[in-house]
Design the sequence.
């Protein structure tokens, strides 16, 4: 089970830190990712992080503003979001691909959290 937290409402230019806690999974053996979906839009990738935490990939719209990290001992995934703007408003999900160490994509067979809402005004 993946459980996101940390969403909320913030003014443009502000920051939020999202967390994704896992039970029943081992983060150290999996590539993890953050995704988001705004109303009326397709789910898009925000960032992924390799199992060892050394390789990180970001979507073009968040490069330089968002930072993904993980704590394998605590089995927790993080997304630090800085300099937020209204286009970042969406429900944010963490995910890992089912039965695979390959990084998840928006349309791969993933385990998904329930999502946490981020609203930027």
Sequence:
């Amino acid at each position: 089970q993946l459980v996101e937290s940390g969403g909320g409402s913030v003014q443009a230019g502000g920051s939020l830190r999202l967390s994704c806690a896992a039970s029943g999974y081992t983060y150290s053996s999996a590539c993890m990712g953050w995704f988001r979906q705004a109303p009326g839009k397709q789910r898009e990738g925000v960032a992924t992080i390799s199992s060892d935490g050394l390789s990180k990939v970001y979507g073009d719209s968040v490069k330089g503003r968002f930072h993904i990290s993980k704590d394998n001992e605590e089995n927790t995934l993080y997304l630090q979001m800085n300099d937020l703007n209204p286009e970042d408003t969406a429900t944010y999900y963490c995910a890992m691909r089912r039965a695979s160490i390959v990084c998840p994509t928006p349309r791969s067979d993933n385990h998904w959290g329930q999502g946490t809402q981020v609203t930027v005004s």
Summary: The longest strand covers residues 90-97. Residues 72 and 90 are 26 Å apart (CA to CA). The two ends are 31 Å apart (CA to CA). The chain is about 0% helix and 45% strand.
